[in-house]
């Protein structure tokens, strides 16, 4: 019997990776969700980058849940920030790790399903 090999691809991270790459950003370092914010904050995030997941944002979060989780984590960061105030914001995990005075921010990219299909072929 011939041996078969199977591969599984996490397409949700793929969508977020495409959006980062198209913006010239590192998908592993950039906080980004793919969600249609033009609808409501109840819209589901179709993709969440690994860096944003590291702050506790679920891969299947609704946009309002992602916003809420980032607010919660920022409240904790603010207590540890020098002078207990932020000096700016960043979407970059590496910058956020280096500078506790930066507020966590993230990009919201509208979904482009046809583009993801074209991109993957």
SSE order in H/E notation? HEEHHEHEEH
Task: Give the number of DSSP strands.
Answer: 5
> How large, in whole angstroms, is the Cα Rg?
16 Å
Count of helix runs:
5
Strand content: 5-15%
Q: Name the shape in a single word.
A: elongated
Q: Span between N and C termini?
A: 31 Å
Helical fraction: 25-40%
Main pleated sheet = 3 strands, mixed
| Low-confidence region ranges | none
The averaged pLDDT comes out at 93
Total discrete domains = 1
Structural class: alpha/beta
For this structure, the CATH topology is MutS, DNA mismatch repair protein, domain I
- The CATH architecture designation is 3-Layer(aba) Sandwich
**CATH secondary-structure class:** Alpha Beta
Strand order, largest beta sheet: 2-1-5
Task: Write the SSE topology.
Elements: H1 11-22, E1 32-34, E2 47-48, H2 50-53, H3 63-80, E3 88-90, H4 93-98, E4 102-104, E5 107-109, H5 113-120
Parallel strand pairs: 1-5, 3-4
Antiparallel strand pairs: 1-2
Could you characterize the architecture of this molecule?
With 121 residues, the protein is of the alpha/beta class. The chain has a single domain (11-116), classed as MutS, DNA mismatch repair protein, domain I (3-Layer(aba) Sandwich), CATH 3.40.1170. Helix content is 40%, strand content 12%. The chain is built from five helices and five strands, in the order H-E-E-H-H-E-H-E-E-H. The chain has helices spanning 11-22, 50-53, 63-80, 93-98, 113-120; strands at residues 32-34, 47-48, 88-90, 102-104, 107-109. The strands form two sheets. Strands 2-1-5 form a three-stranded mixed sheet. The protein has a two-stranded parallel ribbon with strand order 3-4. Strand 3, helix 4 and strand 4 form a beta-alpha-beta unit. The two termini are 31 Å apart. The model has no long low-confidence stretch (mean pLDDT 93).
